[in-house]
Amino acid sequence: MSPSSPSFAVRERAALADLMEELGPDAPTCCAGWTTAHLAAHLVVRDNRPDALAGYGLEGAGIGGPFVAWTHRAEDRLRTSTPYSDVVARVRNGPRPWLPMGWPPIAEALNVTEFAIHHEDVRRAQPDWAPRELSRADQDALWSHAGLYARRGAGRRGLVLRRSDAPGVERRIGAAGRVVEGEPMELLLWAAGRRDVARVEVS
């Protein structure tokens, strides 16, 4: 990829916006109870509402409470008050540059997995989906983030993530336990709880 080429996160954002626009607001996703309209509202609130970020952090840690409820209300208000096409356009355009999520170092650190996972949430909830062929550079970008998600699912038994596309490359979390093998996109989806659609081998 040349220095002027869009990053993986930027390309995933655009591809997800294209897909949501194509499918409309009522298409299913792999996020339980969410349609594409719910997912689009989630992404816009995450991009543009710093007051909602605490809710996302707590929810990701499995903690509820008023901050999480506030975040959900912000998503629901946007989804029910704004035409779906406008919400998807805001997903495509990204956050305002003066917001935290508009700062490139933060955006690149947090958006690689966010948009890769949610793109697949939409893709893999549709009939006849198939895994995409990603470049080695894109798979490497996903691999660099997969360990953070895997720590949440390792538990006391520990976990080994093993790349099927790069012999000898693995990441061990905790004590030796389950071995999960696949391409980085599949490992990331498995670690992020999308186990029904992740193409991995577990031993």
TrEMBL record:
It holds the Pfam family MDMPI_N. Residues 11-46 form the Mycothiol-dependent maleylpyruvate isomerase metal-binding domain. SUPFAM superfamilies: DinB/YfiT-like putative metalloenzymes. This is TIGR03085 family metal-binding protein.
